[in-house]
Amino acid sequence: MNISDIITAIGGIGVLLLGIILMSEAIQKLAGPRFRKILANLTGGKFKALFTGMLVTTIIQASSATAIATIGFVSAGLITIPQALAVIFGANVGTTATAWLVTIFGIQHSIGQFSLLFVVCGVILKILYTDHRSDIGSLLAGFGLLFFGIAITRQGLALLPQSINFTAISGHLITGRLFLFSIGVILTIAMQSSSAAVVLALVALNSGTISLFQGQVLVIGMNAGKSVPILFAAIGATPNTRRIIVSDVLFNTATALLLFVLLPVLSPLLSSLCNAFGAIAPEIELSVFHTLFNVIGVLLFFPFITPFVRFLKTLFADSTFYLTQHLDDAIAATPAIAVETARRTVVDIALYIIQILKDMLQKNGSDITHQLRTALIALEETKHFMSKVKTPPQQKQLYDEHISVLHAIDHLNSIIETCQETHTVALLKNSTNFSDMKWNFNTELAESQKALQSQSSIDTIEKIQELSQYLANTRKLERVEVLKKTATGQLDSHTALDYIEAIRFIDRLGYYIWRVVRHCIVPGDSNY
Length: 528
Prior knowledge:
- It is a single chain.
- 77% of the residues lie in helices and 0% in strands.
- The chain is mostly helical.
- Helix 1 packs parallel to helix 3 (63-75).
- It starts with a helix and ends in a 7-residue tail after the last helix.
């Protein structure tokens, strides 16, 4: 084996890794929104969640994408922690589909000689179109590059056994097994993809570079290694995110340690079972082992999800500010999830502020200064979170929903600023001149509270709009009457201006509340 073969093998690894990345990104763009909706609307027990995670990840082939979506939905309160763990466990099984795809179409029935045709077709679609057909082009190009990379890597590794003797680290001794395990961990960390690392192990096995047993040890290390990168996501994350990350890490490391110890017994047993079905290629047997690894992990953890969740809750207590407990920087890079999480947070803040407003106009109402400060802090945290979320205008519906959340935040901020007018608040509390407007305003607050709590229909929003418009019309009529009384000397100018400011105060709050409810319940439906 010469330097040319080494360069060929390394180049092949790079090409197949690029292919996997292109395929995964394209599938997520094409099917991601639909599968995020499936996850977001997940109901039922843990078994349904397990198979949902398995199905979604089998298709999109990105367990990390499933994990990020799941974290987001837990943060948004869309699914429970037990459901999330079941989805994550299912995703670990689903991600093994890449190994089967490569084994069947890249090794057993190689389509490497046709792979560049897929690349050409993909590039043509990518050049000609900018819609979803462009993503189909990326998918085809990635598919072709994956199998072209496999063919190149096989070619580069073909002469490696003649140059390097791998029998010295067969893995049957504990030292050799630890060495191979470490290589598996390092490969996964370096390639940032356990699927790509397993593909490399399959290619090495097919070329005769490693034995089946060595490949199995490598696969154990690769599955353990995929836990390392996500550990960094736990830094500064919310308690729920930490719980999910730790559960995934424990799933992979505990299963890896168990199989590492049992492998000398499990490997010949698995070979005997496979041989019972006839002569089976070692690459297929390694794919079976890869799937079995994650199935064993599911069997170890799935029956104990409920007590496991209790343990995780004691490990990571809920210490975050309750109004913004769902905001997590880990999901800010996924706009669809981040915008929905922010919308739900704004709903919680709006409900909190509505309760403040109901207390504010009561004659014996408590001081609202501290409550307003709490609401303002929550809004500031939400604005800080939203500053990290970037939504492309091409995704029109999501883009409009993003803008609606920002509108709602702005209106809530205006409510807090308006409520700082303590002189006007005191006048409204102690005067009986505004009973009609106060009654209608309280009615609007009650309807808004019910609407936000139940995510009501457009009919309820129109009723709130009518109440807001009634306040606006009343303000116009009352203002004229006050000015007339002032002109005739029935009211002094100072009292008249205070009176006008009071009715304007109620009108402004009524308008802001209506707009907040509108933007929260029908996001993207209006631009003011």
